[in-house]
């Protein structure tokens, strides 16, 4: 597994919009402020052609133009210039750019950090499983426009800049955001106490430890990739079976019943072979229930057969804040006293 070099002070941060661009509020103002913040911190910025675009269907531009923008950073003209690439946002149809993303050339090019989540699973998942390059599943660029930064953003940036190789959960989370067109820079509205739920092996123990290699992302996207030509999970699992695999998953548009179907699909595709544990983020559907199926029994009854820890309601995904998850990296995880700590041993500090 290739670990990109850390972003150095004075280095250049790239920005691309393989999913939604920052063409509407509050994202446009937040993105502009993020750029100013990074520049004040001593970094240069390089914007792709689609950052402010809104001409596509479910993404910023045409699939071909979005793919060309990604290629220009990850394996093209800007590859040597930049040290990290932030996505401008999530979206709906980033999958449509994949036919034109040059994964073969990316494998041979200088690896760099790609950061994003949600629809960006189409890269944060495929870069490790196809190209053997780690990526950071974490907030998109406009989040860094908030004032002040939430600790989760500071933690992500410390990982990116090589000042830390740790991640952890947070005491409170946001159920209702205050961010809107009139207030584009407000910080997370964290009012709900974090309560980690444990199922599977070790559910009644005070301390749970898991070690293995992390992979996963947004279930909406993962279930869409199963069985396609981009599905290289079997190869990934076999290559890293000695490490064992830790799956992290969360969801956006899926209701509890759809979450359960997605878990079933990944299970029956053989994706969970060699699994050592599951990390499940709070889904966007949160308190929704359909025919007795909620966010918990949508997941754990299908996964208990693997006899590994199943840790739920974590700070991963669509209910902020979000701890940075290094997709493709080896991790040592400790869950204790309603907290989670992740040590990324392969990352230099």
Describe this protein with a few key phrases.
single chain; alpha/beta; 6-stranded mixed sheet
Task: Produce the secondary structure layout.
Layout: E1 12-16, H1 27-40, E2 44-47, H2 63-74, E3 84-87, H3 103-108, E4 113-116, H4 121-124, H5 126-131, E5 135-137, H6 151-160, E6 166-168, E7 172-174, E8 190-193, E9 197-200, E10 207-218, H7 219-225, H8 233-239, E11 245-250, H9 256-268, E12 275-281, H10 300-303, E13 309-314, E14 325-327, E15 330-336, E16 339-343
Parallel strand pairs: 1-2, 1-3, 3-4, 4-5, 10-11, 11-12, 12-13
Antiparallel strand pairs: 5-14, 6-16, 7-8, 9-13, 10-15, 15-16
Helix pairs in contact: 7-9
Fold and architecture overview:
The protein is of the alpha/beta class and 349 residues long. The protein is 24% helix and 23% strand. It is built from ten helices and 16 strands. The chain has helices at residues 27-40, 63-74, 103-108, 121-124, 126-131, 151-160, 219-225, 233-239, 256-268, 300-303; strands spanning 12-16, 44-47, 84-87, 113-116, 135-137, 166-168, 172-174, 190-193, 197-200, 207-218, 245-250, 275-281, 309-314, 325-327, 330-336, 339-343. Strands 6-16-15-10-11-12-13-9 form an eight-stranded mixed beta sheet. Strand 3, helix 3 and strand 4 form a beta-alpha-beta unit. Helix 7 (219-225) packs parallel to helix 9. It is globular and about 50 Å long.
